Inverse folding.
């Protein structure tokens, strides 16, 4: 059984009972995240890109857990330069880790550190753990190649950004779900800041009514099992 905890924004913890992975650990400065950094126990930190609301508390979380940071080459090199264990990958490449397979996908966005320094390409990520495949879109606009992602891998869970302004809004996100065709879609990257305020239940309704597919709005801090 795979546990999925939604911290809020784009931050999730995947835990199969043996391995634990946090994606985009944005806790400090995130008004919707109730989890304390000290309580995050993980083996891996996966970063989709370097923006402050994604790299977040990566450094402290990786340090306190002696965890490995998995990111595209430029961002992984930066993590290593900060004294962290880092594993370098890049878009289109997959690697078999002890927990399972991880592959970075394209994402149409930016990837600068809060200080403006550029960190290579932003990414989405496919993670297969405990027999389930999760596609976390990262921050991105809609792109037709999402069809290919759904064609190459059967996606059990798609974490899809819906907040608009910086990423897909609801209607584009619904189209993205149609392209990827996951078993379950979970909206993310909304209601953290005023400019990305939106109604996740509108997304859920459109996925269910227009596509006849399953969507679920996770509460901030909620854990589900798939
Ligand atoms: Ni971003
Ligand atoms: Mn973001």
């Amino acid at each position: 059984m795979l546990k999925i905890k939604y911290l809020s924004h784009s931050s999730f913890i995947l835990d199969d009972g043996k391995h634990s992975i946090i994606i985009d650990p944005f806790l400090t400065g995130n008004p919707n995240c109730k989890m304390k950094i000290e309580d995050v126990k993980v083996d891996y930190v996966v970063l989709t890109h370097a923006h402050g609301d994604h790299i977040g508390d990566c450094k402290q979380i990786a340090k306190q857990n002696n965890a490995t940071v998995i990111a595209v080459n430029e961002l992984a090199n930066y993590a290593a330069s900060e004294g962290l264990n880092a594993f370098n990958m890049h878009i289109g490449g997959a690697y078999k880790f002890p927990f399972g397979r991880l592959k970075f996908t394209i994402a149409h966005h930016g990837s600068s550190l809060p200080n403006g320094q550029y960190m290579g390409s932003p990414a989405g990520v496919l993670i297969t753990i405990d027999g389930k495949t999760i596609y976390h879109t990262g921050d991105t606009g809609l792109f037709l190649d999402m069809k290919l992602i759904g064609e190459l891998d059967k996606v059990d869970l798609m974490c899809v950004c819906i907040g608009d302004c910086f990423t897909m809004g609801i209607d584009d996100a619904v189209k993205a779900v149609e392209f990827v065709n996951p078993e379950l879609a979970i909206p993310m990257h909304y209601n953290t800041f005023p400019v990305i305020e939106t109604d996740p239940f509108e997304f859920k309704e459109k996925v269910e009514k227009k596509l006849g597919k399953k969507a679920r709005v996770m509460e901030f801090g909620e854990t589900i099992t798939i």
